[in-house]
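Review this today:
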Amino acid sequence: MTYLPRKIEKNITAALRRNKSVLLLGARQTGKTTLLDQLKSDLNISLAQPHVRHRFEKDIALLCGEIEALSESKKNIPLVIIDEVQKIPEILDLAQDFIDRKKAKFILTGSSARKLKTPGKINLLPGRVISLKLTPLTIPELPQKKLVLPDLLMYGSLPGIITQELSENKEQDLINYTEIYLDQEIRAEALVRNVGMFAKFLELAAAESGQIVNFRRLSQKIGVAHTTIAAYYQILDDCLVAERIESFSDTKTRRRLLQTPKYLFFDLGVRRISANEGIKPPAQYLGMLFEQFIGLELSRLVALMDKRGKVYFWRDVSGNEVDWIIAYQDQLIPIEVKLIPNPSLHDAKHLRTFLAEYDNAPYAYVVCTAPRKVKLAERIYALPWQELWQELWSKLSSV
C-alpha cells in the first residue's frame, strides 16, 4: 500500500529530538504500524503478533532484559517501539522505569485506551510521555485527486480505504472493518455482557452521530437503562471510535445554553456502515454529514497544534446555534457549516449573534463549497472547505 505522509510525523520527531517518549493512540487501521515503519528504531516489537505477545505475557522479564542489553550496547539512548501496548498493559510500568533511568525512550502505540485505564493498571504515564492521537487522513494529507467531497462523506478517509480505487472494494473493506471491530474490540475483550444489545446501540449511535445525545430516548429504543447507554458511549470513546464534543457553556450574559454533549464517529465511512446506510442518502442528509466532516477536521487540526485547544458546539434554548467553536488560548473561533456554493450574510446570522456575545472572537467563518474565500461582513468570511486547514493553521499559529 502506498504510504501517505502524515502531519503527526513532525510532532513525533520533535518529541524524540528532546529525548521524550511518545504514546501514540489511534483506532484500528488509522495507519499506526505503517507510520512506525517509516521511523528508525533500535527495537521494534509488535504485540499484535500472537507469538510475540505470548512470549512476553509468560515472562515480561525477557523484555526487560532485552532492553537492558540494548541500552548497554548503545552510546545514545535507544529508541524502542512497542505496537499495541494495551495487549500487555504491564509494559507501561516497565517503560516508566526505563524512562526514569534514562535507559531508553519509547514510542508506545495502542488502539484502545480502555485497558490502560483499568483500575489496578498503570495510567497513561502523564509527565513522562508526549501523548498523541493518530486519526484517519486529514484534508492536507489527502492526495489532490482524492479531495472529492461526496466520496469523503460516504467512504471516510481511513488510509486503506482512500488508497482503494474501486467503490465496491471500499464498501467491502468498511464492512469487514465494522465486523472486526465488534469481534475483536467488543466480543473478544468482553467489554459488554450482551453483544446483541451493543450492536443495536452501535447502529443507533452511528445514525445519530453529530446530534445532541438523548440518553433516555436511546435507552427506550434499545431496552436498556440510560446509564448503560452512557457506559456504551464511554466504550466507543475509550476504543477511539467516537469522540465526545462538549457544548460551550461560558456566557457573557444570562443566555441559557444547552449542556448536553454530542458524539462524532471517528470516520464517516465506518459511521455509515455501522448505521447500516447506503451510499445514496437523501439530499438534506448530506448537509449533516458535511457538518460532521468539518467537525472531525477541526478536532484533528487542534490536536496537532502545539498549544492547547478544544472544539465545542454552541446552542442556546432559544434556538441560536453555531455548529463548531474552536477555543484556543484566549480566543474563540465560531464556525458555521453550509453545503452551499454561494453563501450570503443570511447564512451567518448565528455567527453575528455569537460575535456580539463574545468579545474574544476576532473572526468567524462559514465553511462551504464556494470556489474562493469571500468576505461576508466585518470579521465574517465564507471559506472553501479545501482551504480550512491552511486558513486556520495560519491563524492559530500566530496566537
